Amino acid sequence: MDFRDSPQEAEFRARLRAWLADTAGTFPTSGDEYWARQGEWHQALYAAGFFGSSWPKEFGGHELPPVYDVIVDEELAIAGAPPRPSLGYLVQGLGRHGSKELQRRFLPGMINGTERWCQGFSEPGAGSDLASLTTTATRDGDHYVVHGHKIWTSYSDVADWCLLLARTDPDVPRHKGISAFVIAMKQPGVEQRPLRMISGVTREFGQVRFDGARVPADQMVGAPGDGWKLAMTVVGHEREPSTLGYAARYGKLVRQLAARLDGPAPDDLAWAAVQTEMLRLHVRRRLSEQLDGVVHGPDGSLDKLLMTWVDQAVGHAALAVPGTDDPELLGSYFYSRAQSVMGGTSQIQKNIIASRILGLGV
Ligand SMILES: Cc1cc2nc3c(=O)[nH]c(=O)nc-3n(C[C@H](O)[C@H](O)[C@H](O)COP(=O)(O)OP(=O)(O)OC[C@H]3O[C@@H](n4cnc5c(N)ncnc54)[C@H](O)[C@@H]3O)c2cc1C
To answer: Is the CB of residue 120 less than 8 Å from the CB of residue 136?
Structure first.
C-alpha cells in the first residue's frame, strides 16, 4: 500500500490548506459556541468545495474516492478548525432506502447544509434494544400522525427535518412493525427540549416529544415495515471508517499534550500515542480496502470499538499531563466518555463482534 498523496490528492490538500489558513481561526471548535455556528461552518466548507467529497454529484457531492474525506479530516485537525459535520450515515440511509423523489428533494439540502437534520431513533426505553421503540405513526388519510418521545437527539434544536423511526404496525413481530419517515421538526405537535451534557454543552442534543405531529404518507422512507432495514444501514455507517477521520484529531491532541511536558511522558500519554498511531494505520487499511471494493458489514463494530478505545485513551492522557487545566482538554476527556455510548454502546459492539464476526453463540 502506498499511502502518499497522488498528484490530484496533493493539489486538493494544498487548496484546502490555503483556504483553511484564512478561515480556520474564525470558527469556534468547542462548547456551545461551536454548536451554535456548526451550520454556518458546514455551509462554508461546502461552498469552498470541501464537504460531500465522496457523495454523488447528482445530489451536490463531488464523487471523489473516500480518501478525500480523510484528507479533509486531517487538514482540519492540523489547522485547529472545527471537525467535519458528521451526517454521512443519514445520507447513506436516505440514499439506500429512499425513493428517487425523496432523494432528490432532501439529499441536496442535507449535503449543502441549507437544511439541518437530526436522527430520531433512541427513546427513553429503547436505546440498545431499539426494536422496543414505542413511538407510533398512525395513518390518517394522506398523512401519518406521530405520538412518542425521542431522546439523545443530536442537533434537535436546529433541525428542520428528522429521520424518524416509529411503529406503524403493533400486530407483527416488533422488528417488522417499524417504519421510517422524514418528518418536519418545525410544526405544531413537536416539542424540543435541550439536554445539558457533563461538559456544560447545552446545544448538542435534546429530547423531542411528538404529540400529534403530522407527516405526509409519501415521506415514508421505503415501504411500511422497512424501518428496521434503514436503521441497520444508518447505524452500520455510523460505525464506519469514514467517520474515523477523527484519528487525525486525536493525533493532534496527543502532540499538544506532549508539547506541554517538561519531563518524561506519563504512561497514559505514551499509551495514547501508540493507540492513536494504531488507529491512523487501521483507518488507512480500511480505506484501502474500500478502494479495492471490499464492502464492510459487521466489521464497522470493530472500527467503532477501536475508535472508542483511542478516544478514551486520549481523554485519560489529557487528565494525566500536569497542568492541563485548559477547559477544552477537560471537555475532551468528558466527551470521550460519550464515545462508548453514542452510535451503539461498546458492549453492543462486542456482542456484534462475538456473534457476527467470531460466530460465537451470543
Ligand atoms: C453524544 C450522544 C449522541 C447521540 N445522538 C443520538 C441521535 O442523534 N439520535 C439517536 O437516536 N440517538 C442518539 N444517541 C443515543 C445512543 O444511540 C444511545 O444512547 C445508545 O444506543 C445506548 O442506548 P441507551 O442510552 O438507552 O442505553 P441502554 O441501551 O439502556 O444501555 C445501558 C447499559 O446496558 C448495556 N446493555 C444494554 N443492552 C445490552 C446487551 N444486550 N448486552 C450487553 N450490554 C447491554 C449498555 O451497553 C449500557 O452500558 C446519542 C447518544 C450520545 C451519548
So the answer is: no
Q: Which atom of ligand 1 is nearest to the CA of 150?
A: 11
Dihedral, CA atoms, 39, 78, 2, 12, nearest 10 degrees? 50
C-alpha 341 – ligand 1 centre gap (Å): 5
Q: Which atom of ligand 1 is nearest to the CA of 125?
A: 26
Q: From CA 264, how far away is CA 228, in angstroms rounded?
A: 51
Asked whether the CA dihedral 120, 124, 127, 129 is positive or negative, the reply is negative
Smallest CA separation from ligand 1 atom 52, residue:
342
Phi, psi of 212 (to 5 degrees): 85, 15
pLDDT, tens only, 155-181: 999 999 999 999 999 999 999 999 999
180 contacts 232 by C-beta, under 8 angstroms: no
Q: How many C-beta atoms lie closer than 10 Å to residue 169's C-beta?
A: 15
State how far the Cα of 265 lies from the Cα of 144, in Å rounded to an integer: 59
Which of 8-17, 109-118, 209-218, 287-296 shows the lowest per-residue confidence on average (mean pLDDT)? Answer: 287-296
Alpha-carbon torsion angle 168, 171, 173, 178, nearest 10: 0
Enumerate the active-site residues: 238
Tell me the CA–centroid distance for residue 54 and ligand 1, in Å. 29
Helices (H) and strands (E) in the chain, counts: 12, 8
Task: For residue range 123-139, list pLDDT tens digits in order.
Answer: 999 999 999 999 999 99
